[in-house]
Input
Amino acid sequence: MTVHEQFAEDLALYALGTLQGDERVALEKHMEECANCRSELQQLRGDTALMALSAAGPTPPRRARERLMAAVAREPRLRAVPHRLAWWTPLRWLAAAALVVATFLLWVKNTDLRNQIVALQNQSAQQGAQLAQAREVAATLTATDAMRVTLVAAKALPQPQGKAIYVRDRSSLIFMASNFPSLPAQKAYELWLIPMTGAPVPAGMFKPDAHGGGMVINPPLPAGVEAKNFAITVEPETGSPAPTSQPVMMGAGE
Output
């Protein structure tokens, strides 16, 4: 097949308006130099117009219809319309990637929000526990039935002093120390509740600060124990189940 014949076959598709892309450009460039192809195109366009009028007007000349059909039949190749979505494929991949990134960011944000909620819940729980403890301390300090004991140590300047406030019905105890001397390493003061009967009950540990102050707030105590007095000994900082030294301080209820 010659080059001219190849373009002649494209003329039918060109006349129908279906020749696209590089082939259309090549044909148009060829027709600029080929008078025969220009003439053939004009005849094919005339035949096409007659075919278009056949739906609403008289039947076109048989020769025109045969020429157009023959021109189409001479075209041996299947001409696929360029894939109109080919340019969209990269955008679809970009959209999918953007969706993945957006989903990941949303997951991260949701995780962060959940962590913030958990942190706020923990903070609220801690504040609630602190508020409950503060209320219990206030209730112990202001209780009219509280046993108030002042513990002192003689022959020491400034004089160490401790104040114990004990509410038996609630097993609530608050102890405040002042002017206590510092202790060797691995040693601490231990407070003891001395009951009316029985052995001393451990009532909390403390180490004095730089000013000799210390505090014990609501240590775990047996319920309903009636206290005769309180005492303080020096014990290992891990605590002792029973006193291992002589009391450095003792006091009875006021």
